[in-house]
Amino acid sequence: MTHMHIPDGILPVWLWLSGLFLMALALSISLISLRSLDAKKKIPLLGAVSAVMLVAMSLEILPIAYHINLSVVTGILLGPALGFVAAFITNLILALTGHGGITVVGLNTLLLGSEAVLGHALFSLMGQRLPIFWRAAIVTVLTLLTTTLLLIGIVSVSHVDVDAVLHGHEEGVHTEAASEPTVSTFAIVVLSLGSIGWLIEAAITGAVVKFVAQVKPELLKHGLHDKQRSFGS
């Protein structure tokens, strides 16, 4: 739901350029923080998780038109820095296969990457107070709610027609006064339909994290350790 399937030429130049700049900055910080990474252990996992994300985001849940991101799972398993890299890889491949324009890669990576970072942070902060399934599920809902609000904010400041965002139609840019009701409509649509998708993704995330905790618990421990190492000192 937070991946914008918008062709090139719809969003204002200043907006997608800002997205590309911030993405490049965040990606640089992530890569610098990963210099001491044990590549033999994490790079294969990065490739596997990115591939699963790519497949999930290519499928659409009808009739709510929702795409499972698996970004929170990615953040929990890989850590925030490597999770952001996975978000970039996934969004770049999606753009190259026609799921949104190249110019939107920056904004889409920021949205998906923030889900990985925020999801990992919230999951680690919750500690052991709840069963792992419910921790992952609750974190997923909170994270997707936050990034959906960010998406609504992006649409609001862009002043584009909502139909262009929802369906990728190349419509003209609206004035601020004319676009105000459109943004409200867009917010109602994505929050109402998105909430259903969040619950579905929360159940999937909870089940995946619970399964990993049972068969490969060191993946979760490594993710938490990587977070402290990457963003600590």
Structural description of this entry:
With 233 residues, the protein is mainly alpha-helical. The protein has a single domain (13-231), classed as Arp2/3 complex 21 kDa subunit ARPC3 (Orthogonal Bundle). The protein contains nine helices and no strands. Helix 3 crosses helix 4 (80-96) and helix 4 packs antiparallel against helix 5 (105-125). The model is unreliable at 169-181 and 225-233 (pLDDT under 50).
In short:
With 233 residues, the chain is mainly α. It has helices spanning 13-33, 39-58, 71-78, 80-96, 105-125, 132-158, 162-167, 176-215, 217-231. Helix 1 (13-33) crosses helix 5, helix 2 (39-58) crosses helix 4 and helix 8 (176-215) packs across helix 9.
Write the layout of secondary structure elements.
Layout: H1 13-33, H2 39-58, H3 71-78, H4 80-96, H5 105-125, H6 132-158, H7 162-167, H8 176-215, H9 217-231
Helix pairs in contact: 1-4, 1-5, 2-4, 3-4, 3-5, 3-9, 4-5, 5-6, 6-8, 8-9
